[in-house]
Amino acid sequence: MSNDEKDKLGELMHNSRIARELEWARKHEEELLAKLRARKGGAEANANCPECAQKLVEDAEHGTGGLVCPERHGAWLSWDTIVKMLDRLAHPKSD
Ligand SMILES: [Zn+2]
Hints:
mainly alpha, 2 domains, three-stranded antiparallel sheet, 2 helices, 6% strand, binds zinc ion
């Protein structure tokens, strides 16, 4: 195999890796959007950040079920979730 052929092969492999990564990102985003749609437009699904006015997005990272500003200015959590978190902080051993 010539060096030129190796370069082309390397380029093809690189491009297919990028294509796979883009496909994964697209699927991941679709799943998040499906979750948001499943909420059926509750007040929080349409919330915007008071700091930068961007639409809040689901907090997939921590699984709180809350919404966060994409710029991490703040978050919206249900009151029940906050009470549960405070309870866990106050009683770290109980589960
Ligand atoms: Zn913001």
